[in-house]
Amino acid sequence: MDRWYQKTGPQGDVVISTRIRFARNLNDFPFPCKLNPNKKTEVVNLVNGALGALNKDEKIRGLGLRFIDVGELSKSERISLVERHLISPKFIEKTGGRGLISSQDETVSVMINEEDHIRLQVIKEGLNFDESYPLADLIDDILDKKLSFAFDEKLGYLTQCPTNLGTGMRASVMLHLPALRESGKMAQIASSISKLGLVIRGLYGEGSEPKADLYQLSNQVTLGFSEKASIKNLEDIAMQLIMQERSARSEIVKHIEIVDLIHRSYGVLANARLVSESEFMKLISNVRLGVATGEIKNIPLDLIDSLIINVQPAMLEIREGKNLSATHREQLRADLIRQSLTTKNS
Amino acid sequence: MLCQSCGENMANTHIKRVINGEVKEYMLCEECAKKMGYGKLWSDFSLDFDNFLGSFFTENIPHRLSYDTLRCKNCGSSFEDISNTGKVGCAKCYTVFYDQLVPSIKRIHGNTKHVGKMAANVGKEKKVENELQDLNIQLKKAIEKQEFEKAAELRDRIKELSKGAES
Ligand SMILES: [Zn+2]
Ligand SMILES: [Zn+2]
């Protein structure tokens, strides 16, 4: 079964993926920070016990939801879950008293005992709230019926951190914005976006120039705005960014320096024998820009998007089945990139 | 990533500040973040720092002494625990420390009233509550109009509903 990152979705030239995340807690247990290991295990078992109810629903059954004991995974396997955006880095800082539910295609995941008892996530390729929100909503309803979530009429869903009160929902869109970054407008955009109750930040690294020009746009406020209003707002702003990025792209590809950069980046990636992660992220962004603008032909976007995930360090280690030295890793990365870019291209 | 202030500890706090319309971002370790006045409760949010510091402390200092002794019976947290860790201990804490938490909730979200999806059990209770309210008004009217038969019917329904709400 294809995973979400192996496919391109709506507005795929700019949008990599759409994500909904719900923070939920069980009524009858203190929040994870106040749980001893035994109680944590109890929560894990209760949530795991709701799997049956989930798989009974015909809309959910096909997803093949299953329980994963995070403690039994190897270190690279655990990190690779972060690289595939299935879990948060925080989730694997400790492994005791945690559990994970995931669908075969990795669009659905439930982190048990991260910051809250439950962090439910639905992720879809492209700009796609129309499918991701209803699915998250449905899974949430079924879990709530089984587990009974902590809720207050005034404050909404009760969460360990007050920043998630209310809907407990973080909706986000992952955007590829090489042209807007190139135009030097990102700081200005970030500042005007923050006035609209949203936040945009680099996906990899926190510097001013995120690796691969990937940005995450998400809602900041969870209390006082309904799920639908938040999503509508986010979608509107995302569409504006998409249009701006597209028009900036059509401008910058008129310059020979940019066209040269695109093809030069492709040349390096298609031929190099050693590629570091940071070099890859810089070059693949240029190549993706080239593919999206038609400057590079015969390479599908989904190939680029799955490559971005597949060449991450732990993903390479899993593929190889062992720990890798830095040089060996760079070599394997280069091999994988070369294979992907040249086979489909010929 | 290492803390951008001390360069020694792992950074785990993402600070965003808007200064003259420009967004500045820092990654700090817990200690440095605390030293600079960013408690965990308020990390990850873009705020005007000076503004926030001033009003936060003036709001909370006068109350401090009397709240120190109050603890949540369900999880044992005091308000000081919550404020130091940025973590609320349990759902009941939100009731016990509601007055103390509301200023920061308001500061974070700009709101204090939830709008949107409701949990199933609360939704049901709320529905029953609304219906009871409605029935009681009808009952009053029926009595005023001396429609005793209707009043008796309404009384039965009210009785039934309140039983269901308790169980
Ligand atoms: Zn530090
Ligand atoms: Zn408590």
Description:
The complex is a heterodimer of chains A (346) and B (167). Chain A has 346 residues and is an alpha+beta fold. Chain A contains 13 helices and ten strands. In chain A, the strands form two sheets. In chain A, strands 2-3-4-5-1-8-10-9 form an eight-stranded antiparallel sheet. A two-stranded antiparallel ribbon of chain A has the order 6-7. In chain B, strands 2-1-3 form a three-stranded mixed sheet. Chain B is built from eight helices and three strands. Chain B has 167 residues and is mainly alpha-helical. In chain B, a hairpin with a 2-residue loop joins strand 1 (13-19) and strand 2 (22-28). At the A-B interface, helix 5, strand 6, strand 7, helix 7 and helix 8 of A face strand 1, strand 2, helix 6 and helix 7 of B. One zinc ion binds next to helix 1 of chain B. The site of one zinc ion (ZN) has 8 residues of chain B, from helix 1.
Main traits of this protein?
heterodimer, A: alpha+beta, Creatine Kinase, Chain A, domain 2, eight-stranded antiparallel β-sheet, 13 helices, 10 strands, 46% helix, globular, B: 167 residues, mainly alpha, three-stranded mixed β-sheet
Bound molecules: zinc ion
CATH level 4 superfamily of the largest domain in chain A:
Glutamine synthetase/guanido kinase, catalytic domain
Could you say which overall geometry of chain B the principal axes of the C-alpha atoms support? elongated
Count up the helices of chain A. Answer: 13
Q: What composes the largest sheet of chain B?
A: 3 strands, mixed
The average pLDDT score of chain A comes to 93
Number of distinct beta strands of chain B: 3
CATH architecture of the largest domain in chain A: 2-Layer Sandwich
Helix content of chain B: 40-55%
Q: Based on the structure, what is the oligomeric state of the protein chains? A: heterodimer
The spatial strand order of the largest sheet of chain A comes to 2-3-4-5-1-8-10-9
Q: What count of structural domains of chain A? A: 2
Radius of gyration of chain B: 24 Å
How many DSSP helices of chain B?
A: 8
Largest interface: A-B, 50 and 46 residues
What level of helicity do the residues of chain A show? 40-55%
The SSE string of chain B, one letter per element, is EEHEHHHHHHH
